[in-house]
Amino acid sequence: MNILIAGGTGFIGKRLSHILIKNGYKVFILTRNINKKNIIKNATFVDWETINPELLSSVKVVIKLSGENVAQLWTRSAKKRILDSRVEITSKLFDFCKNNEIVPNQLINASAVGIYGRKDAKYSNESVDENSKIGDSFLADVCQKNEQSCEVFNIFDNISILQIRIGVVLTRKFTLLLALPTIFSIPNPGNKNYYFPWIHLDDVVGFIYYSIENKFDGIYNVIGKNLTNHKDFYQILAKNYFGFFPWTLFLPISLIKSLGDMSEMLLYGPKTSSEKISASGYNFQHENLKSALKKLP
Predict the structure, then answer these.
(1) Taking the C-alpha atoms of 204, 209, 213 and 218 in order, what is their torsion angle to the nearest 10 degrees?
(2) Residues of 7-39 as b/e, b for ≥16 C-beta within 10 angstroms?
(3) Average pLDDT for runs of 10 along the chain of length 297
């Protein structure tokens, strides 16, 4: 089967491409920088201006992973880039498919658990799943518009549209950065009773692959199997890297909220359920945080 990936040169895209190619899929990477073609062996790189139905019309799965990094200062222009990189790109991807006579039977779109985020910080014990209402924060709005933008693909008969709401993807560099404040007794951002929706890259890629094999549609929260609150997250993190449990202090919520909209990245709190992904038959490669931290990319 032929697969087209927008955002294939990113963190998730590269690993996914390698797995798909290894398992016999032909992968096309849609990119603005064709010079990156050497970073993924055996993938075919095409730019956004390509019109070549003879090459691309056989594509049956389209995967959209594109998106501006949210981990930056949220200026007005940055917010616009974050939104446009997820919404406007969908229209461009749709036009690319039409121009190249691609008739996909599955669209997989990367969204995020930030869709449940709310400005009210008093909801840490609230459980949310794929049927819960959308939040009222900036990231919630971005995620909602991102998912809604994919409706244009419903013009294709019998297409399955899969929205994967991804949690915080753990990396070695990221977790080391988070562990340092704990070790030096610097207060951590967040709240000890709020929940940290982590996921290992292996399971993000693993579930996407599983979804293609089984032609899933609908919405799935792609987060770790075991719920972990901020206190346990930071303590397990510190113990994994440094071998002891330090004191774990947290900044007051009021101080974090003084950052404005950006505070929502630090104050994520609801108990986000991963029961649907477990019920799908997917077997997590890392069922708990300790396992995930032992094998970070």
Answers:
(1) 40
(2) bbbbebbbbbbbbbbeeebebbbbbeeeeeeee
(3) 94 95 96 78 94 97 93 88 94 97 97 87 75 91 97 95 95 78 72 87 97 97 90 82 66 69 72 93 92 86
Angle, nearest 10°, between helix axes 11-22 and 201-214? 50
Q: DSSP of 203-234, one letter per residue?
A: HHHHHHHHHHHHT--EEEEE--SS--BHHHHH
Q: Which of 99, 278, 268, 148 is nearest to 198 (CA)?
A: 268
Which helix H or strand E contains 164, and what residues bound it? strand 160-166
* Per-residue pLDDT, 95: 97
**In degrees, to the nearest 5, what angle opens at C-alpha 276 toward C-alphas 273 and 277?**
100
User: Which tokens is 135 given?
Assistant: 């939040």
Classify burial at 51, counting beta carbons within 10 Å of its beta carbon; exposed 0-12, middle 13-18, buried 19 or more: exposed
